[in-house]
Specification:
Shape: extended
CATH architecture of the largest domain: Up-down Bundle
Number of strands: 0
Distance between the termini: 51 Å
Helix content: 55-70%
Number of domains: 3
Number of helices: 15
Largest sheet: none
Order of helices and strands: HHHHHHHHHHHHHHH
């Protein structure tokens, strides 16, 4: 199947970068690599997809070093495509690990893993001294694990920032506190993680139920359980993935909010609040033939409206508190 087919629908929805006011560090604007092989829609085609993926040669260490450096510097789509196709077997291998013990739909897992692979290639720094496959495996697992979290009822933990924070950190904080001689009760954990006590209790109960399901034997008389086959994942990668989702959500909501603004307010939003080099009150006033004090009043009101809009539209907005207008 040709690699210059359309991007997968989900790849087209990749988060766009945000202005400094919502994202402290903006990455270089590079083109995304070509999409991975289109994943077939019928389970009967899985073997054909695997055979097609196996046609692409693996890279030698020298080839990988040269290609990753070239893509890092140029964002060349053809180079990105070659990096993707040479790692399709890695996605299939990881997807099979999850599918065997977690879900039946291998195609969905491969598709999510492919998106993780593409994101990993885009983020990969070839000068840090690690192999691409090692780095990409964390992103592939993170995307697949998130898909399982979103679709498997026993692991549907939640999507707010507090819930994600608890899901990724609760067990680790418990162990850390115990190692320091503290009893990790709900109140102490809530203080440490900066969440509400009732959220700690609820997540602890959910994770407890999940742990029980993971501890269940794979089959009668077996010493192995599902937990033995859950691939390890780097919490930093998972948190970075959650941050990317949050930025995408901000971008969407900000775009929706813009439709409620008049020309003056749009200018103040774009040229003052979101601008890398904001215009002065005087300059904005001159554009609209109003006083700088009037511009300041409109800006203050706009900031309040935007904060209230985001608070209404985004769960746990007070936990995020993006520094708009601060």
């Amino acid at each position: 199947m040709p690699l210059n087919d359309q991007f997968d629908r989900k790849v087209a929805d990749f988060p766009e970068e945000l202005p400094d006011i919502l994202e402290p560090e903006i990455e270089a604007d590079v083109e995304e690599p070509e999409a991975a092989l289109p994943v077939p829609s019928d389970l009967d085609l899985v073997q054909r997809y695997i055979r097609e993926a196996n046609r692409f040669a693996l890279l030698t260490p020298d080839e990988e070093k040269a290609l990753t450096a070239h893509y890092h510097e140029t964002g060349d789509r053809e180079t990105g495509s070659r990096l993707i196709t040479s790692n399709l077997r890695l996605v299939i291998k990881i997807a099979l690990e999850f599918q065997k013990y977690w879900m039946k739909n291998l195609l969905d897992l491969i598709q999510e893993g492919n998106i993780g692979l593409m994101h990993a290639i885009r983020k990969f720094d070839p000068y840090r001294g690690i192999k691409l496959s090692y780095y990409a495996s964390f992103w592939i697992k993170a995307y697949i694990l998130k898909f399982i979290m979103d679709n498997w009822k026993l692991v549907k933990i939640g999507t707010t920032q507090s819930q994600r924070k608890l899901f990724y950190n609760l067990k680790r904080e418990k162990e850390k506190l115990r190692s320091q001689g503290f009893e990790p009760g709900p109140k102490l954990l809530a203080d440490v993680l900066n969440v509400r006590e009732e959220e700690v209790i609820e997540m602890d109960q959910r994770l407890g139920a999940w742990e029980l399901s993971l501890d269940a034997p794979l089959k009668d008389g077996s010493d192995e359980n599902h937990k033995n086959f859950l691939p390890a994942s780097d919490p930093q990668v998972e948190e970075e993935l959650a941050d990317a989702e949050l930025k995408n959500m901000f971008r969407r909501k900000l775009g929706e909010f813009r439709h409620e603004l008049n020309d003056k307010e749009l200018d103040i939003l774009d040229l003052r609040l979101l601008a890398e080099k904001p215009l002065t009150l005087q300059e904005i006033g001159a554009r609209h033939q109003i006083s700088r004090e009037r511009v300041r009043q409109i800006e203050d009101r706009l900031i309040k409206r935007l904060r209230q809009y985001l608070k209404n539209e985004i769960a746990d907005w007070e936990d995020y508190r993006t520094p708009i207008g601060d």
